[in-house]
Design a protein that fits this description.
The complex is a heterotetramer of chains A (442), B (275), C (358) and D (317). Chain A has 442 residues and is of the alpha/beta class. Chain A has 2 domains: 27-150 and 290-389 and 420-429, Rossmann fold (3-Layer(aba) Sandwich); 151-287 and 392-410, Rossmann fold (3-Layer(aba) Sandwich). Chain A has 15 helices and 13 strands. Chain A has helices at residues 7-23, 45-66, 85-96, 108-121, 151-165, 185-188, 191-201, 219-228, 241-251, 268-272, 294-304, 319-342, 349-357, 363-368, 412-429, and strands at 31-38, 73-80, 125-126, 144-145, 176-182, 204-210, 232-236, 259-261, 282-285, 360-361, 378-379, 392-396, 401-403. Chain C has one domain: Orthogonal Bundle (ABC transporter involved in vitamin B12 uptake, BtuC). Chain C has 14 helices and 4 strands. Chain C has helices at 13-16, 23-43, 46-72, 80-97, 103-122, 130-150, 182-205, 207-217, 219-224, 229-256, 266-279, 284-308, 314-335, 339-353, and strands spanning 163-164, 168-170, 173-176, 258-259. In chain C, helix 12 (284-308) packs across helix 14 (339-353). The radius of gyration of chain C is 21 Å and the shape is globular. The mean pLDDT of chain C is 86. Chain D has a single domain, classed as ABC transporter involved in vitamin B12 uptake, BtuC (Orthogonal Bundle), CATH 1.10.3470. Chain D is built from 14 helices and 2 strands; from the N terminus they run ααααααββαααααααα. The longest helix of chain D has 32 residues, at 17-48. The chains are: A alpha/beta (442), B alpha/beta (275), C mainly alpha (358), D mainly alpha (317). Chains in contact: A-C, A-D, B-C, B-D, C-D. Chains A and C meet through helix 1, strand 2, helix 3 and helix 4 of A and helix 2, helix 3, helix 6, helix 7 and strand 4 of C.
Chain lengths: 442, 275, 358, 317
């Protein structure tokens, strides 16, 4: 073992990298820095690309059109995570020292890793409609925001909608509802709620887990569906799982109008993969359908046409693109609110946390932004970081999505106690979990 | 010891000349086949303590298979093997090794990634006992044991005159030296019975002479019983006390070299007279 | 010139079989340890510690684990990731069942569980060799991964399905959880890795290490010399899995803070295998070099365009990184199939005879 | 418990024969696709002893090239021809850059090199065509897309996808063509000679390099066919790579050098996996498909280490 000296070489290289990392750590003055953890590669790229484009373009547009927010330019930096938790943490470590204001991991796995760090590093995590449901409890998780909804809100909306279709929740008795999900933290989150509702309303919940490795090979799951003949199918899918599931559903001739996806199974490509047969497929959504919004026109004008983006103009207005835009709207409004609250132009992660906590996206404000009707007005409180805002159901008409229902309120009365219980459990399991010391800006 | 046939009234010198010594190993009616192909048919012979026993025969006669049977690598379908007076059931090769049977191979089977020293040290494996815990610590018992055995190994290195290649990976050695290292490795086991499978194959005259000298020295100095397979008749006749001749898996002759040399069946086999 | 062993005579077998018989090597090792224990902690920033040094050391340890099995005992394994996962889940269970116990002890103990599981999956190795064995280790990989997902008890029924490292202290210093400072975590990882590497160096030069190499080089000859193949191979599986298990536990406890089953996927197995092959099969030092190369190169590549002032899209960097890593793997295999460890030795040989190479 | 394991599944098979038939059909189709990937492995292993780990990625790469070219405005059939050309260039490149310099290296080094190739192809494919999954241009290539349902009993229904039938037909044609190629042509004979003994083949004037380039090309064609078929079932994306691991147990069953073995092994794994998952998987929470194939292969190995069609190995010293 005399060649242990070779470590020297590795160390030398490592130091070199470390220095280059250190050099870029110099914080730039007069700028607000927003790192974007995105993924345009890997099995989830199909969904990730549109999200990344949407997030990037809106912030870029603010820079080009308004010169940033409050007169301070935004600096964005994409870091490719490939939906991989390790790389996500690497991105986090590489960017947090540059004055990062907020993180949007777009992966439940990465979110979970960042949740405990957020309070320590004083950088909030914005997991918009994903991540840990329990994080909605602001008193336990002051640094995590999952506005506008948690998965449990979503699951309750699906059941409510199915109840409506059947002419009332009481008619769910004896019905079979199938739940096909990505077998990871993400897909497993809603199960406790679905089970609790099953007890309450008397339907039978059938579970069809899809392993990450089996995402593109779901024939067994759908054969099981065929055998069990559920009355409705609910899907919690992401990435390559969505189009495959929709295709398989078409293949076994499952009635598409009884197949409802979560807001992450609402991509245009996802539904299009099913061809003609996918007509009638439904999904929840909370961000605008289509591209008839003045803000999107501005993006087209200032960013896409100016060649400042890798966005294909045709994909603008797609569900996931719009989702990314909404994410950036929340970031931008958070920054603006923080600036108003603190009076500073260049803010820190702590200011950003206050900004997000005081976020109040009203109908008027949306209109000012050129996004009237793009999203339901949303408001964050210190207690509730999700807000359990209403969502709507959209339907695929074979070419594009159409809104198929009004705004449906989640069953807050059931969801909220569950969230609180889960937050308490989390704090207990991760004891000693720090008690909230952050002041409430409202 | 039911196989003890030494006549106590005889002097030791007489015993030498009579080749009437303690039986080390006896093979009785052994047959071995691979899926219908008979490799060995009904062979019986014995090896006495302290002798050099040669097994000869044309290619494909079943010589190597015979060695494989002796050290437990192949299990014969029929027949028995009596080792030091005990009839042996199905035995694993490592059990044979622990009972004192060592061997070298027709195609050198050294541990290519290791040095000469390590290869010979590997022969001491059975004699080293310090457990995993001591090995982890190294300092103390494990190190002492290692040094103790290192001394023995250095003796063998001296004996075989391979001091200079002690730290050379064996893969880089010339063929003749590899054969020598292999012999050293087998010697390190301090075996009762040493099986040599063509120890001189592919060697030049000088190397053969060296090797012959080593074999004789091993036999005489350490008193190791040796069974060897060899094609060079000159070497066989010079070295061995008794010779067994195989052909097509059958035994065709057995006895002292001169006797075997004169045997018509043996001459036919080597000249290829049709059966 | 500087690498001469002339004049260094050994007067005892003890000195001759020391780990580093040559003075310069000993000096070099001390220098490296000095850098690792003093210079790096003194000067490195958080990013360097958490994103480069800690993962590098964790992966080095895992690579040592796999090297014991594949490099020293010759048994190809594609299940490293899963064995690391066993360690991680075991450590998590242990520390939640015994919250007051020392977390470092729990991490070291967790390896015992992966050792047991490794030995079970090593059983077929008696009959199966080479690529065939690789398939059985794949069975271990996929089966264990499935267990991590489908047995909620393993992750204490967390709704997220992930394990999250709890806050633990030792001597009043936070050693795990989000508040543990990078420097503390770095020291723990460094000590464990260096310690295990040292212990393994001992085992590998002794009887047990030799018996593994005998099996690797020529299993039949080894058996004929009294090595019990099953025992020896199972021991290699157990020791290897122990080390991998500890590495896996360190990965979640001192680096990532939380882990999903997909953290211990087949991709991780391949990553470790790359490190071992490129570093050099059968070389402990090579394990460190391989880990440094495979982990640090992509991090480095990510920075190059930025430091050179190019504005390259993040995904393009990712794609190009894949291409470069793939191409470099092929390149190094062609240049030196025995890995960096051999390159290093050749370099030393050149130094030894310099300036008169002939 | 015992009832659930030993009796209930068979009762189910009997009571819902249409469903059982459907399961068999799905198993059959999955098996064909596994077999096609395994076939690519076998071709290369036979001729060069290289375990080509990159076969799975070649499937994706071929499919991606085809779709990518079409997206960029190349007509479907021309894209197909160009893709064949690309696979040819790839084969030639691999032979020149990877195989030739690494000749005579140990198996594990060659295996590693193909894993390196896998990384390279992933990066290259994504770099050129983008990382997002793409839809296979099934209709443009003139492949059938519909499905036929057979009434069965009272309310039974067996649905056959036309594309799956096409996949089966193409697999059969491909195996037949390879068989003819191996047995009737000059190059085929040379290939078999190389497979038997490299040295001997060299000594009678067969160019190893040429043969290797040809087998890699053949494997590339098999990959393209597989890519089209699999792409039509799901999308063409790099997530497919993981499915390619299934070829390993297939090869264990069928033996590394046997073309019929690859087919039979593929079908056994396909049937075994689907039946296991649908009738027994539920007992342990489902998803056993992800490892069942490997466990089947493992158990099989313990009893017959040489594979279905392999000769018994006699160890010599």
């Amino acid at each position: 073992m005399k060649n242990i000296k070779q470590l020297a070489l590795g160390t030398a290289v490592a130091i070199g990298v470390g220095l280059s990392g250190a050099m870029t750590t110099v914080a730039q003055a007069e700028e607000n820095y927003v790192p974007l953890l995105t993924y345009r590669t890997g099995p989830f790229a199909a969904s990730g690309i549109h999200i990344a484009n949407g997030m990037h373009d809106y912030l870029k547009m603010l820079n080009e059109r308004d010169g940033g927010i409050g007169g301070v330019k935004l600096v964005t930096e994409e870091c490719e995570t490939g939906y991989n938790a390790q790389k996500g943490v690497e991105c986090y470590e590489a960017t947090k020292g540059k004055g990062a204001l907020v993180y949007n991991p777009y992966s439940t796995g990465i979110t979970l890793q960042l949740i405990p760090k957020a309070g320590v590093d004083k950088i909030p995590v914005l997991s918009m409609g994903y991540g840990l449901s329990a994080a909605a409890v602001g008193s336990t998780f002051p640094w995590v925001f999952n506005v506008p909804d948690t998965y449990w809100d979503g699951a309750s909306v699906v059941i409510k909608y199915i109840g409506e279709q059947e002419g009332g929740l009481e008619n769910l008795k004896g019905k079979k509802i199938g739940y096909i999900f990505l077998d990871a933290g993400y897909g497993r989150e809603p199960i406790p709620l679905l089970e609790q509702l099953a007890e309450k309303y008397g339907y039978e919940l059938l579970q069809y887990p899809v392993g990450i490795k089996e995402m593109q090979n779901q024939s067994s799951q759908w054969l099981n569906v065929r055998r069990d003949r559920p009355d409705y199918m609910v899907m919690w899918g992401w990435g390559a799982m969505n189009p495959t599931a929709i295709k398989e559903a078409v293949k076994i001739r499952f009635p598409m109008d009884k197949f409802i996806g979560v807001w992450w199974s609402a991509g245009d490509d996802d539904a299009a993969a099913g061809g003609e047969g996918a007509k009638g497929y439904k999904a929840m959504n909370f961000s605008g359908v289509g591209r008839d919004f003045p803000a999107l026109d501005d993006i087209q004008k200032y960013v896409v046409d100016a060649g400042l983006s890798s966005t294909d103009a045709e994909t603008m207005g797609g569900t996931l693109y719009n989702r990314g835009v909404l994410n950036s709207v929340i970031i931008a409004e958070g920054i603006r609110t923080a600036q108003e609250l603190t009076g500073k132009k260049v803010i820190t992660g702590e200011d950003m946390r206050m900004g997000l906590e005081a976020l109040d996206l009203t109908e008027e404000r949306l209109k000012e932004l050129g996004l009237s009707g793009f999203a339901h007005p949303m408001k964050v409180t210190c207690e509730d970081h999700a807000g359990s805002h209403p969502v709507f159901i959209q339907e695929w008409d074979g070419k594009e999505w159409r809104q198929a229902s009004g705004w449906i309120e989640p069953m807050t009365d059931i969801v909220r106690p569950l969230l609180e219980k889960a937050a308490a459990e989390y704090a207990e399991k991760n004891a000693p979990w720090p008690a909230r010391t952050e002041p409430c800006p409202n | 010891m039911n196989a003890l046939v030494t006549d106590s009234s005889m002097t030791s010198a007489e015993a030498e000349t009579q080749v009437e010594r303690e039986l080390l190993l006896r093979v009785d009616n052994v047959s071995l086949s691979f899926g219908g192909v008979k490799a060995i048919t009904d062979i019986s012979f014995d090896i006495q303590k302290g002798e050099i026993r040669a097994i000869i025969g044309p290619n494909g006669a079943g010589k190597t298979s015979m060695l494989n049977v002796i050290n437990g690598f192949y299990h014969p379908q029929e027949g028995t093997i009596t080792w030091q007076g005990k009839v042996r059931r199905k035995m694993k090769p490592y059990e044979a090794a622990s009972q004192g049977i060592a061997r070298t191979f027709q195609n050198v089977a050294l541990f290519k990634g290791m040095t000469t020293l390590d290869n010979i040290m590997s022969g001491r494996s059975l004699k080293m006992h310090k457990n995993f815990f001591w090995q982890l610590l190294w300092r103390g018992p494990a190190e002492q044991e290692e040094i103790e055995h290192r001394r023995k190994v250095e003796d063998i290195i001296d004996f075989l005159e391979i001091q200079a290649i002690r730290k050379t990976p064996v893969g880089r050695l010339p063929y003749g030296l590899q054969k020598r290292v292999e012999l050293g490795r087998a010697l390190a086991m301090e075996p009762e019975l040493l099986l040599l499978d063509e120890p001189m194959a592919g060697m030049n005259l000088e190397e053969k002479e060296d090797m012959s000298r080593f074999i004789l020295d091993v036999n005489q100095e350490f008193g190791t019983t040796i069974a060897l397979i060899e094609h060079d008749m000159g070497v066989v006749m010079d070295l061995s006390d008794r010779v067994v001749v195989l052909d097509y898996g059958k035994k065709i002759a057995d006895g002292p070299p001169e006797e075997v040399q004169a045997n018509q069946a043996v001459i036919d086999a080597y000249l290829g007279v049709s059966h | 010139m500087f690498y001469r062993e002339a004049g260094q005579f050994k007067t005892s077998y003890k000195a001759d079989q020391a780990l580093m018989p040559i003075l310069q090597d000993r000096v070099g090792l001390i220098a490296i340890l000095g850098v690792a224990f003093i210079v790096i902690p003194a000067f490195a920033n958080d990013f360097f510690l958490t994103s480069i040094m800690i993962p590098f050391l964790v992966f080095s340890l895992a690579a040592i684990g796999l090297n014991v099995l594949t490099g020293f005992c010759g048994q190809l394994s594609l299940g490293t990731g899963a064995f690391m996962g066993v360690g991680a889940y075991a450590a998590y269970k242990l520390t939640t069942i015994f919250p007051d116990a020392n977390v470092i002890v729990m991490v070291l103990l967790s390896g015992v569980f992966s050792a047991a599981i490794g030995a079970v999956f090593g059983l077929p190795s008696l009959r199966i060799k080479g690529l065939y064995l690789a398939v059985t280790t794949l069975a271990a990989q996929f089966f264990l991964e499935w267990c991590f997902i489908r047995i909620p008890w393993l992750y204490n029924n967390n709704a997220s399905g992930a394990i999250e490292v709890p806050h633990r202290e030792m001597f009043g210093i936070v050693v795990s959880g989000a508040e543990a400072t990078p420097i503390v975590r770095y020291f723990i990882v460094l000590c464990i890795t260096a310690g295990i590497a040292f212990l393994m160096a001992n085992v590998l030069r002794g009887r047990i290490g030799r018996s593994w190499m005998m099996i690797r080089d020529m299993d039949i000859a080894a058996e004929l010399m009294g090595i019990r193949p099953l025992q020896t191979k199972l021991m290699a599986f157990a020791v290897s899995s122990y080390i991998c298990g500890v590495a896996g536990a360190m990965m979640v406890f001192f680096w990532l803070n939380a882990a999903e089953p997909s953290s211990y996927s087949i991709a991780l197995s391949f990553q470790i295998l790359f490190m071992v092959i490129l570093g050099g099969l059968g070389s402990l030092g090579g394990s460190f070099m391989g880990a440094a190369f495979i982990w640090i190169l992509p991090v480095f590549l990510k920075f190059i365009p930025g430091t050179l002032g190019f504005d390259v899209a993040a995904e393009t960097v990712e794609h190009v990184t894949f291409m470069i890593v793939g191409a470099l793997i092929i390149f190094f295999l062609i240049v030196e199939p025995h890995g960096f460890a051999r390159l290093w030795q050749i370099g030393k040989q050149k130094l030894r005879v310099w300036p008169f190479p002939y | 418990m015992l009832y659930d394991i030993f009796i209930d599944p068979f009762v189910q098979m009997y009571e819902m024969p249409d469903f059982f038939l459907q399961v068999l059909w799905e198993g059959f189709v999955a098996g064909i696709l596994y077999a096609l990937i395994a076939l690519g492995f076998v071709l290369i292993f036979k001729a060069s002893g290289v375990f080509n780990f990159a076969q799975g990625i070649m499937v994706v790469f071929a499919g991606l090239t085809l779709v990518g070219l079409h997206e960029n405005g190349v007509p479907a059939y021309l894209a197909l021809i160009l893709t064949i050309g690309v696979m040819g260039v790839l084969a030639y490149g691999v032979e020149r850059v990877v195989m030739r310099p690494l000749v005579n290296q140990p198996d594990i080094i060659l295996l590693m090199a193909t894993i390196g190739l896998t990384y390279f192809l992933i990066g290259f494919g994504e770099f050129v065509f983008g990382g997002e999954p793409k839809q296979m241009i099934t209709e443009e290539l003139g492949l059938p897309t519909g499905s036929t349902a057979f009434e069965f009993g009272e309310r039974g229904l067996v649905i056959l996808q036309h594309i799956d039938i096409a996949a089966a037909v193409i697999a059969v044609i491909m195996v037949a063509a390879l068989g003819i190629f191996f047995n009737k042509t000059r190059i085929g004979r040379a290939l078999r000679a190389v497979a038997d003994d490299h040295q001997a083949a060299l000594s009678v004037g067969i160019s190893l390099n040429q043969i290797w380039a040809i087998v890699w090309f053949a494997a590339g064609l098999v990959a393209l066919a597989t890519g089209i078929m699999w792409g039509a079932r799901s999308d063409v994306s790099f997530a497919l790579e993981i499915v390619a691991f299934k070829a390993l147990p297939v090869l264990i069953l069928g033996g590394f050098t046997s073309i019929p073995g690859a087919i039979v092994g593929g079908l056994i794994i396909g049937f075994g996996e689907k039946i296991g998952e649908l009738y027994w998987g539920g007992l342990v929470g489902g998803g056993i498909e992800s490892w069942l194939a490997y466990i089947i292969a493992l158990i099989f190995l313990l009893f017959r280490p040489q594979g279905l069609f392999g000769e018994r190995i006699i160890e010599r010293v």
